[in-house]
Amino acid sequence: MNADRTSAGDPARTLELLWRRGMDESPRRGPRPRLTIERVVRTAIEIADGEGLDAVTMRRLAAALGVAPMTLYCYVPSRTELIDLMLDEVYLRMPRTEIRGEDWRSGLKRIADENRALYRSHPWAAEVATSRPPLGPGQMAKYEHELLALDGIGLDDVTMDSALGLVVGFVRANAREAVEAESARRDSGVSDREWWDANAPLLAERVTPSSYPIATRVGSAAGEAYDAAVSPDAAYEFGIQRILDGIQPLVDGRARS
Amino acid sequence: MNADRTSAGDPARTLELLWRRGMDESPRRGPRPRLTIERVVRTAIEIADGEGLDAVTMRRLAAALGVAPMTLYCYVPSRTELIDLMLDEVYLRMPRTEIRGEDWRSGLKRIADENRALYRSHPWAAEVATSRPPLGPGQMAKYEHELLALDGIGLDDVTMDSALGLVVGFVRANAREAVEAESARRDSGVSDREWWDANAPLLAERVTPSSYPIATRVGSAAGEAYDAAVSPDAAYEFGIQRILDGIQPLVDGRARS
DNA sequence: AGGTATAGTGTACTACGTACGGTGAAGTGG
DNA sequence: CCACTTCACCGTACGTAGTACACTATACCT
Known about the structure:
The structure is a homodimer.
Chain A: H1 11-18, H2 37-51, H3 58-65, H4 79-93, H5 104-121, H6 137-148, H7 157-188, H8 192-206, H9 213-225, H10 232-252
Helix pairs in contact in A: 2-4, 4-6, 5-7, 7-10
Chain A binds a DNA duplex through loops.
């Protein structure tokens, strides 16, 4: 997986970049910068949106900006930090509609849909590892906004965080599946159906209803229901409803264990 | 992300490798092979277990086996297919205890725990993209075994597949978080606590209770409850209980939408 | 006008997967 | 017993990454 890691550089520098401080446009010595961090990040996002995160190489991005690859390092400490900046930027751009009088279930479903919309516009965002999230204004605004949907419904603070994490984690994992499916398509040049049609007859020689009775029965039923082996869209609707149903008892105060 | 993709080579060859056909030990021309696929795959798994999937490079694996890098291509068409073989192999090794008279909830929880145990032993397995899963004996046996826990409790076939997918998908996503956290630790040489201690004071300058009231309140509560910003262990227990609670209405036949 | 901080860049290093073509050993047919 | 065939093995090399380092050129300050 070329899962891209989170930054390892100087925290102070990274946070300054994220919060756009030190960006005081005082008349400084030396030549005028030809680019801005904003433009670098924006262009990187455009490339990632169109061609995936792997396409955002320093050389490719530099070419898109009309500069030499090494020039980017004047604006960004490393590719890893660039990705953090990209992620916080798309978080920041998310529309945050506040709805008064919304019940918790609608609110949480809306949060899930908002995240889903994010990953539809920016599939690469689902690929980024977030065990150490970008501590920028986008991340913070997103967290604050999402917690609002869970505030005041009787959950304690830790449970609020857990419930939100479960929901957004699910949406992200679901989006990752979709990205991986798309990557497989792109890398191999073979569509899901072609892949399955090539494998199915060969697989049928080894996997028979007598040796795998339930798997063959359920697998073929599921394969017919969706078009391919796995369908992120169907999995999303199913999963989010189950998760909301699972949070219900917490709100009602009659959850298990 | 170095999310590793699924194979793109010849399906017939890949399936033969997975099911270990064409392995007829007829006395063939030419020098005796010094290795076996089994040994290659086993060694690769050992490296991945100890040092992560990224450490499984063709050169590293070849060195561990005492051969030249290119020699591996006599046994495996590409690194991608090797990873498929590794994955199917660890699937195949999973213990499959069948318990009679188990209620569905215990059964599904057991399935989740079995998957969790897999990812504890082989964290790298969570990293592998499975939108086109390895169609080998391990994958099939695992699927068959897991479906058994959901069979005969009144769910239709498609719903059985969806419910199972939700559970194992959750466990895998949770394991991925853990892998990513570990990678971040390893790559940066900075522990979670050190990372947080370095960032917290700088973040506090930008994130105040007045600007982000709920986020600061809930974030600090959650941060105190677990040790770090994110705790996969706590998230697992919380998440799996919510998901089981969410499947309950399906079994009872009173689910939403 | 001269000094200096800084934007921009060319070159090069490491590490990766793997294509290609050569080499030598094991078995077969005469 | 010998030549021929087949195949395991591998040395070299290519293309693609990120980025360290040293150098050049520019624009401001004194």
